[in-house]
User: Fold these one by one.
Assistant:
Number 1:
Amino acid sequence: MADAGRSFHPSARGRGRTEWRALRLLRLLLWVGTAFQVIQGAEPELHACKESEYHYEYTACDSTGSRWRVAVPHTPGLCTSLPDPVKGTECSFSCKAGEFLDMKDQSCKPCAEGRYSLGTGIRFDEWDELPHGFASLSTNMEINDSTNESTENCTLSKWAPLGDYIASNTDECTATLMYAVNLKKSGTVNFEYYYADSSIIFEFFVQNDQCQPSADDSRWMRTTEKGWEFHSVKLNRGNNVLYWRTTAFSVWSKVSKPVLVRNIVITGVAYTSECFPCKPGTYADKQGSSFCKLCPENSYSNKEETSCHQCDPDKYSESYTNPARGPLSSRSLSLNRHTHP
C-alpha cells in the first residue's frame, strides 16, 4: 500500500528535479555576483583624464559634410571623464600654408619660428627608408617563355632610398615607385629630379581610382642639363595614384646613371594639426613659415633652428649643388664641415 504522505507520480518527481536545479542555478548566480563585486572592488578607480593624457580627433564626415571633434585617450583604459564631443569644423575647412589647426579651439594658428607647415600638404624629404605609403615594384619588359631567369633577375631591381633622395634602378628592368593618396580638394604634386643619362627612360604619370591616366602631355621626362629640375602636375579631388617609372638600356656595357628624386610635395590632403621642424642645414626665422630656407655657403644649422651659424675659420660647408660633384644633400650641407686640405 502506498504511503499517503508521498507521491510517486512522474510529474511530481519532474517538478522536484526542476526546483532543485533552479535552486542550484540561483546559488551559482549569487556566487558569481559576489565574486564579480570582489574583483571589481579590487580594481583601482580610474582618475579624471588630464590634458596631457588625451588628444582630439575628428569623426568621419557625414553626408552633409559635418563632423564631430572627440577626445581620445593616448592609452585606452588609463583615465575617464573625457571632454564631451563638440561640433567640428566643416569637412572642407583647411588652414593656409604656414599654419596648423589647433584642435583645442579648432582655429588656425601660425607655426613657431624654426618650424613650418604646408597647410593641407605633405612633404617627403627624408629618404633613409621608403616612407609609409610608398611601394617599389619591378618587372621585366622582355618576354621569354622558355625561362624565368630574366624575370627573377629583376626581383631586386627597385628604387632605393639614399638619405636625401631616392634613386632609380640602372639595369634593364622596369622599376616603378608608387604612391596612392586621397585628396579632399584639387591639389598638386611637386618634386625635384636629377636625370642626366638618356640611356634610361624616365616617365611620371598619375591615375585615378578607375586606372584612367590624367590628361597630361608631360608624362615623358626630359633630361636635366643643369642639375636638379622642378616638376609639377595638377591632381584632381579623390583618389590619385602617382607613378615614377624607369627602364634602362645598356649601351656598349656602359653603366647608366640613376634617376634621382627628392622633395616630393602633395597638396590637397587633409588638415595638419602640427608644424614640422626644419631639417639640419635649413632654418625658419619668422612665424608662419611654409618652408625652411637653406643656409648659405660656409654656414650650418641644427634641427629646428631659427638662424644659421658661421663655420669656424678653419672649416667650411659646401653649397647645396656642386657642379663638379653633382647633387649634394642638405645633410651634407649642414653636417659635413670639412677641414681645408
Number 2:
Amino acid sequence: MLSIFTPYLCQENDSAIVCSGSGETIRIDPIAENVLRFRSSFSGKIFDEDWTLIKPSQKPFADIAIDRVKAMVKCGNIVAIISIDGVVKYYSDRGNVLFEELWIDYRVNNANLLKARNYRHVYGDLYKVELYLKARDNEYIYGMGQYAIGYLNLKGCSLELAHRNTQVSIPFALFIRPDEKLYYGFVWNNPCIGRAEFAKNWTMFSCEASKQIDYLVIYGKTPEDVVRKYMELYGKPPLLPEWAFGFWQSKLRYRTQEEILSIAREYKRRNLPLSIIVIDFFHWTNQGDWKFDPRYWPNPKEMVEELKKLGVKVMVSIWPTVDVASENYGEMVRRGLLIKTEKGIPILQTFRGLTTYVDFTNPEAGKFVWEKVKENYYKYGIKLFWLDEAEPEFGWDYGYYNVLPYHYDNIRYYLGNAVEVGNIYPFYYTKAFYDGLISEGEKDSVLLVRAAWLGSQRFPMVMWSGDIPSTFESLKKQVKAGLNTSLAGMVYWTTDIGGFYGGDPEDPEFRELIVRWFQFG
C-alpha cells in the first residue's frame, strides 16, 4: 500500500516540544508535576490564551528527548510521545497507555476514514476543531459538570458542551480503569460551544469555533491525586462560613417587604432554624435597574435590620438581563457593556420584556453593575447575591415558538463570538460580584449561581441546579448530576427542594417527594 506523509519535525523550545508537519503546529508543555498541556493549530502559531487556567509561576522539571522518529517529554510520572507521523500518546511511568489518539488512515494502513485532529475553517483564525482518542472498554468516566441524564458513569454518553437552564458544562473528566489501577484526568481547556462523546468506538471533544485544540492530561496515583491537581490548576474552593450550611428559605416569590418579614417572624415564633431568606426575581423596578421597587419594598434598611435581629441574613436575586426600558440601558449601550448580536435586533430574551444581557466578559460591565448593586442593595446591609440566568439563557419562547433560538454564532461578547467563548460567561459573572465584595472588604459572603465553568470553584459560591421537575425521577437524576458536578470542582452544589416545575401539594406522592428531598438536602 502506498504510504506517503509529511514527517513532523520537532524541536525543544522553552522546556516544551514544538512540532510542525502537514500544515499543523503542535506544542506540548509540562505545566505542573504530572500534568502536560497539548495545543495545536492550523494557523501556523500557538496562542497563549490560558482562559481560567492558573499556571504555576515556575515550570516543573521535565526530561525531553528528540530523535529521528519521535519526540518525548516526561514530567513527573507522565510521558507524552509524538511520532514522526504526528500521532500522540500519553503513558504513565509504569508504561501504561493513558490516552492514545485515534487515526484511521494510512498510519494504520487503512483508507482515509478518520483523523485524530481535524480543522475546518470557519472565518478569520477560527476553525471547527475535533479531537479523537481511542476508547477503552474498561474505563469509567466522571465529572464534566451538571447533566441530569441519569448516569453517574458517563461512558457511553454524548454531552453538549454548552450551558442551558439545568445543564452546566465544566469540561474536566476523571478517567478510572480500576482493574489496572489507573487514574487520570482530561481538561478541555476551551470555553467554546461543542460536544464531548464517550462512545464505545472513540472519545471525542469538539469546538464549533476555536483558534486551536487545547487540553491538559493529568496523571495521579489515586483519583484524589488527579482531582487535587486539577483544583491546584483551576482554583481550590474556599471554606464557606458556618452559617452558609444552615437552612435557606426561598420561593417564587415573596412580593412585598411585609410578606418576607412575616415569614421570618413565623420561623422565629416556631423556634425553627433559618440562616438565609431569599428575595427572588422581579422585586425590582425594571430588568437592568438593580434596585427595589419602592411600592412593595418601601424601607429595605429597616427590613434588613429586623431580619438581622432575628438571626436571618438576606439574599437578593440578580438577573443580568437589561430591558430596553431600563434606566441603565442607554448608557450601557453607549459604553459597550451589553451582549450584542452579529446581525439583527440585539434582543436575546423576551421574558416580561425585551431584553439583552450584561456582557460580564467585559471588565467594565462588571464594575458598572457592581456600583449599581452597591448603591441599591449593599448599602442596606445586603451582602449575599443569587446570580440567576448565569448561562445566560437565550430566547424564552413564551407564546412564540422558536422566536429566539440558541444561535450561538449570532451572539457577540467582548471576548469574542459565543461559539468560541460562550461557556466562560458564568465565570466572569461570578467574578464581577466576588471582586466587588472583596473591594468592600467582605470576606465571608456567599454567592448562589445557576452555572459555572472551569475555575468557578475558586469563588465563594454555591451552584444550584436550576429549574428542575418535581418528580422522583428528577430527584434520582439530581443525585448523580450533583456527584459529577462536585467531581468537576463545584463541591458546593444544591437543588430546589421538591423541584421547581409541577407538583400538587394535595397529592400524597408529592408530599412524600418533599419529605425525601428534604432528607437529601
Number 3:
Amino acid sequence: MDSLSQIVLGGAVAAAIAPPGHRRAALLAGAALGTLPDLDTFVLMALTDDPVARMTEHRSWSHSLFTLPLAGTLIWWLYKRLGHGRVAQAPLRWWWAIVLALVTHPMLDAFTVYGTQVWWPLSVPPSVWGGVFIIDPLYTVPLLIACAWAWWARQRPVAQRALLAGLALSSTYLGWSLLAKYRVEQQARTDLVALGAAPHRLMAAAQPFNTLLWRVIAVGEGGYWVGERSLVADQGPMQFVFHLSDDAALAANAALPAVQRLAWFNGGFMRARVEGERLVLSDLRMGMDPDYTFNFAVARQADGQWQAIQTEQLRPDYARAERRAEAGARLAAMWCRIWHPAVAQ
C-alpha cells in the first residue's frame, strides 16, 4: 500500500496498544515503524542495477513474518536500554506495539496485487490477495481520522475508542474487498466457461481507488482475456476481450533466469511480445493495455536464435502531453464505468 496508509496503520496499532500516557509517542513511533519495511527500496537501489532483481526482491526480506518480529524485538530492546523510559515503564505493551506496527505492514501489502514475500526466506510464491488497489481512500481515511483524533484527545478514553473504531472500519473494508473479489472471480469463471474459454489461471484485481470496479485477467493458450465487472452497474454475463501473447517466444526463453524469476513472481500473469528483435515481458496484474506498469526486455533474436541480454525495464512514456492526457482519460472513463454498465461489443 501507499506510504500514508502504512503510516496511519502503524500509528493506530501502536497507539492502541501502548499505555494512554504514551499515546502521542506511540503514534509517532508506530508511524515510523509502519513505513520502515519499504526502505528496502533504497537498499536494493544501492546493491543492484538489475530491474528484475529490484522488482522481485522488494517486499521480500524486509516484509517477512520471520524477520520483522526479530527486528521489532531488537528495536524494542534498544528503546528499553537507550530510550527516555517509556518502553521500560511498560515493556510488554511496548513490545507488542513495536512488533505489530512492523508486522501489519506486510499483511496490508499482501492485500495488493504486487506480491509480498511474507514467508521469506522460504521459496514459496509471494502472497497476492489482491483485494485493494495500492491507494484506496476508503481504507486510509478512517485510520487517518482515528490517528488525528487520538493525537488531539491524548490520554482521554475517547482516543482509544477512536483508534479501535478506525482499525475496525479499515479491517472490515479489507474483508469486504476479499468477498467482492471472490464474487467477481466466480462470475468470471462461469462466464468464461459459457464462452468456451479454458484459462489456466484467473484473477480479479480492484481498480484504482475503489473496490466497486474490478478487472479480471484470465491467462490461456496463446494469450489472455480481460474483462471488467462493476458491482454497482453490471448485470448478467461479463464481457471479455482476448489479447494475444507470444507463447512460442516465451517458451524459447523459458530457461533464462530473468524469465523464470518473473514467472515465479507474477504467477504466470505475464504477456510476452516481440518488439523489434527483443522479447518484452509485461506483468498483467498492474496497469492495462497498452500501458502496463512493469515491462522488461529480456532477450534478443539474432539469425533466428534467441540470446539473453542485460535486462532493461521499459516504462510507459508519460513524458508526452498526449500520453498523459490518454492516461487521464482512462481514469475518467474508469470512474464513469463504475456507475454505468458495459457497452456491448
Number 4:
Amino acid sequence: MRKILLTLVFIFSLFTPSLACLNGDTRELANKLTLYTDQEYGVPYGHDFPKDLDYIILSLEKGYKKTKDLDYLSDKGYILIIQGKYKEAVELYKQIESIKPGRYSTASNMGTAYELIGDNKEALKWIEKSIAIDPHSHSGSEWIHVNILKAKLKGEKYYTSDFLIGKDFGKGKYPKTDTEDLHALRKMLYYQLNERISFVKPKDKIVARLLFDLGNISYLVGWKPDAYANYQLAKEYGFDDLVLKERLTISKTPDIKNETDYSEEQIKKEILELNLPRINLYTSILALIAVAVVVFLFRKKVFPMLK
C-alpha cells in the first residue's frame, strides 16, 4: 500500500511544475472575493473581470460600513474604474485621501483614473506620488507608466521604444540589443501592458509600440511563441511598421539564417519549443487522469488509510 501512495506522490511531482506555468497573478479584494486570476505569463491579454460588478460593490460597501476599513472603499474605487465610472472613482479616492493621506492604492488608482479621463498631467502627478510611496510596487515597473504619461504630454514623436522603455531593438529582420538583463525588463513590461490592455482597447499607438517591444524581448530571450503572440497583438493595436511582418515570420518559424549551416536537429528543436506550452498542458491533463484512475482503482485501500 505504501508503494501505491508513493506512486501517487511521484506522479503528482511530475505534473506539478507543468501546471505552475498556468497560474498568474491573482487579485483578492477586501471582502475576500477574487477579482481576477491571470492565466498566462508572457502575453498580456488583460484581466478577465467578472460580470456582476454591482454585486461586488454592494459587498464592499457593506464591508466598509461594518469595519470602517479603507481597503473596502479603495477596492470599490477600482471596481468603478473597471465600470468606466472614472470621475466617480476620482471623487471616492479624494475622499479616501482626506481620511488617510499617503496611501499607495489611492495615488496609484487616482493616476489610472485621471489618465483614463484624459487628464494626463494630473495622472502623472499621482503616479509619481505613488512611486514615492512605494517604488517597488507593480514589480517596480511604474517608471514605464511615468514615461507613457510624459510621452502623451509631449506628443506622438515621443511614442518610441527608446523614450518609453529606454531601449531600441533595431530595424533589421532580427531584433538586437546590448541589454543583458532582458528578463527583468520583460517582466516589468508585461505587467504594465497587462494592466493597460485591461482598460485600453485597440487601436492605441503606445500600446502597439510596447507590445512590439515585448515581442522583441520575448524573441531575444528565446520565447518565440510568446514573441509571435505579442507581435500579433501589436498588429491588432495598430503597429504598422514594415519590420513587423519580418519579425512575425521569424518568430513563427525556425530561425533559419542559412539552410546549409542549420541542421535538421536544430530545426526540430525550435519546432518543439514552439509547441512546448501545449505539450506541457496535455501532459499535465494526462497525468491528472492517470492519478484519478489509480485512486479509483485502489479507492477501497487508499481512502481508509487517509482517515
